[in-house]
Amino acid sequence: MSISIQQISTPIYHYDTALLRRTLDTLLAASGKYPNYQVHYAIKANANPALLDIIQQAGLGIDCVSGGELRCALDAGFSASSIVFAGVGKSDWEIRLALENEILCLNVESLAELCVIQEIAVQMNRVARVCLRINPDVQAHTHTHIVTGRAEDKFGIDWQDVMPVIEQAQEMPNIDLKGLHFHIGSQITDMQDFVDLCHRINLIQEYLSTTDFCPEIINVGGGLGIDYYQPSTNPIPDFEAYFAVFAEHLQLREGQSLHFELGRAIVAQCGSLITRVLYVKPAADKQFVIVDAGMTELIRPALYGAYHHIDNLTSQQQEKCMYDVVGPICESSDVFAADRLLPLTQRGDILAIRSAGAYGESMASCYNCRRLPQAILDQHPLLKILN
Question: Which residue, among 261, 218, 217, has the nearest Cα to 40 in the 3D structure?
Fold first, then answer.
């Protein structure tokens, strides 16, 4: 039975699972060249069950930053031994949950947190495997709100203060210190940032070589960016170049494993936010395209001023006009695009806001008492319309 365009219920998230599988295949082919590399999916990017099922089947581990994400990963079938748990403010119940399930390790971000984990581990008669998250004071060239590795950022232990923490960890009977964890930011497209991280880790490892501590695990986080401007031309990041940076510049010791925590790079391009044009509203010096999706469905443009490519899926017009594409939310920041050139657009047209597979559905809210959108996969009969 054919489905007319009027029957599309918007807004919705649409996921191209074929692209997700190709992305995972490319990722695994690139990382597989290095047998000591392990990739964890950063579940904060998107926890849609259908996507998690595909990622779990591909054999990736999980990077989580909350107890809720940990439960979600376990429910999705990920092995606890493949899960790492970061986060600057872990609650006691979250620590207990991690210890109960014997996850691979907790990435510890302060001496105060380490002491709490030791206390809880004693109470539970467990040994907590941990990595120390180090703030390497490396500047990532990305948006200031998603930089995490500078000295002024809240994350991690100052790299120059790590030795006393290591010494105290080694004295704690219920702490098994496995390694070091780093993460400098997100949506990084300048490979030099990762080169700089490698150099800082080399320096730290050289310093540690004078002690009796040799990390088993070096976790470099994630942060690899995508092409938001040309999602169709560049749907899959250059994983080869990314992993090659660490192979060339990071001096691993014998027996060390290198861990990565990629999220956006895996799922962003497979998702689009599908929305309907409600009104085209002329103003004094511009035209507004008002759609039924808003910052409640995709907050990145309002939060970061982030760019997302927008396609008009239904307009047959050759003529193009300049529009501001805005949502219905009662906030002036509810803007998807300003001064965007689109085909002549009218009420009822269907737009696809691209590269929404990461931090779209996962950051959605019910503000203004809105309902959370549904998600459809590429096997859905609507696909023939959306294509």
Answer: 261
